Write a sequence for this structure.
């Protein structure tokens, strides 16, 4: 060993002088540090990816819950029409309140459909369509819109 270098507790030679001491780790320890760094960074990336998937699933669930409330309002409106054969002001109000969020949750075609329900329900030709099969068709269409 040269001047200014000495053996220090199992590590490679310690070089003194200048600004301070430099400690050299054995080669296997340097490789272990590099490998650990890669493994930890991959683990962090995997956790971030899983969190992004969980956040997307939660967003879909929240959207489904809000869209289903609008669907329930439309179903209740159509159900009342089938029961009474006509549309009362109370059902129109409940539909308006229940579907108020539709503007933010659906496209324009769904909003126009929901806005047109009270006007279409007052037409006499709707009474001939007020059957269980017709109701199931309408509800199936609304369920497809939820997705």
């Amino acid at each position: 060993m040269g001047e200014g270098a000495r053996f220090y507790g199992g590590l490679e030679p310690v070089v003194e002088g200048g600004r301070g001491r430099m400690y050299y780790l054995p080669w296997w320890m340097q490789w272990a540090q590099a490998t650990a760094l890669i493994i930890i960074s991959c683990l962090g990336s995997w956790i971030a990816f899983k969190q992004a998937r969980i956040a997307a699933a939660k967003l879909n669930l929240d959207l489904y819950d809000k869209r289903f409330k609008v669907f329930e309002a439309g179903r209740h409106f159509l159900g009342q029409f089938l029961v009474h054969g006509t549309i009362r002001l109370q059902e129109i109000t409940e539909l308006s309140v229940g579907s108020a969020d539709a503007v933010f949750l659906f496209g324009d075609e769904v909003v126009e459909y929901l806005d047109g329900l009270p006007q279409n329900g007052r037409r006499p030709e709707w009474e001939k369509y007020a059957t269980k099969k017709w109701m199931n068709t309408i509800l199936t269409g609304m369920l497809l819109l939820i997705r």
Remarks:
- The longest strand covers residues 11-15.
- Residues 27-84 form the longest helix (58 residues).
